[in-house]
């Protein structure tokens, strides 16, 4: 019988930018998510597809090093272009091969979330 308590990590994956201020925005968002995720996900971190560190494999490995037995990867992208459809799954697949004992799940991208329509309307009204 397995007595291990699962440790669920959350990894927010953004595109990354040559503009460091944009990458800082993602890190600040990650901090806000971390505060709200207390008790559900620990650790909560971010990674980038390109132009910034850590990259996706390193971000997942950081979660695993922190004891995660499940890593939930959330693509912070508005549409399902090549990065969402191919690049992120490919990066995750490489880590899955190295850590078959860890459950690594990729959620739908941000733009696919039903709540995004409400958020857009809220921005327009505020």
Task: Give a verbal description of the structure.
By secondary structure, this protein is of the alpha/beta class. It is built from 4 helices and 4 strands; from the N terminus they run βαβαβαβα. The longest helix is centred in the N-terminal third of the chain and has 17 residues, at 20-36. The mean pLDDT is 95.
How is the topology of this model organized?
Blueprint (H helix, E strand, L loop, with lengths): L7 E7 L5 H17 L7 E5 L7 H10 L4 E6 L6 H17 L4 E4 L8 H11 L1
Parallel strand pairs: 1-2, 1-3, 3-4
What does this entry show, briefly?
This protein has 126 residues and is an alpha/beta fold. The chain has helices spanning 20-36, 56-65, 82-98, 115-125; strands at 8-14, 44-48, 70-75, 103-106.
- What percent of residues adopt helix (DSSP H or I)? 40-55%
Counting DSSP H or I runs of 4 or more residues, the number of helices is 4
Report the mean per-residue pLDDT as an integer: 95
Strand order of the largest sheet: 2-1-3-4
Quaternary organization? single chain
The parts where pLDDT drops under 50 for at least 5 residues are none
Q: In what range is the share of β-strand residues? A: 15-25%
The secondary-structure element order is EHEHEHEH
How many runs of DSSP E, i.e. beta strands?
4
Main sheet, how many strands, which sense, barrel?
Answer: 4 strands, parallel
> What is the first-to-last residue Cα distance?
53 Å
- Structural class of the helices, strands and pairings? alpha/beta
Compute the gyration radius: what is it?
15 Å
User: What form results from the Cα inertia axes?
Assistant: globular
């Amino acid at each position: 019988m397995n007595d291990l308590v699962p440790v669920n990590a959350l990894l927010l994956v953004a595109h990354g930018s040559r503009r460091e201020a944009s990458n800082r925005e993602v890190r600040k968002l990650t901090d806000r998510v971390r505060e709200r995720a207390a008790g559900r996900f620990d650790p909560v971190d971010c990674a980038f597809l390109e132009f910034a560190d850590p990259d996706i494999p390193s971000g997942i490995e950081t979660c695993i090093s922190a004891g995660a037995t499940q890593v939930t990867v959330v693509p912070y992208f508005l549409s399902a272009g090549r990065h969402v459809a191919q690049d992120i799954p490919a990066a995750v697949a490489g880590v899955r091969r190295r850590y078959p004992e860890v459950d690594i799940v990729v959620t739908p991208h941000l733009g696919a979330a039903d709540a995004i329509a409400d958020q857009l309307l809220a921005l327009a009204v505020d």
